[in-house]
Specification:
The chain is mainly alpha-helical and 94 residues long. The protein has 5 helices and 2 strands.
Length: 94
């Protein structure tokens, strides 16, 4: 049987998440040290543009696998996204 692939921060790959997915969540969880550092890391480590990163991250945080892997981060990102999507003066549904 093959050995599980290890991610930098969280150990063996979690079911439903690729190594790239885990790396994206790990990167998003780190705070950037200076302006532009995050974008440089996205390009050099993940080999994608910032736009590609954020599009994929936006879809990724809607998955149960991402929530199981990094619950606090995913909840924070979901709440942040919901806050940006709210239109002032418009009643929220629910």
């Amino acid at each position: 049987m093959d050995e599980p692939v290890e991610s930098e921060a969280k150990g063996p790959l979690k079911a439903g998440l690729s190594a790239l997915d885990q790396a994206m969540l790990d990167l998003e969880a780190r705070s950037s040290q200076r302006p532009g550092a995050k974008q440089e890391t996205i390009r050099s480590t993940l080999h994608m543009t910032s736009a590609q990163f954020y599009q994929r991250l936006n879809a990724l945080i809607d998955t149960e696998a991402a929530l199981a892997y990094a619950p606090m981060l995913v909840r924070r990102l979901r709440a942040s996204r919901e806050g940006r999507l709210r239109v002032p003066g418009r009643p929220t549904s629910g």
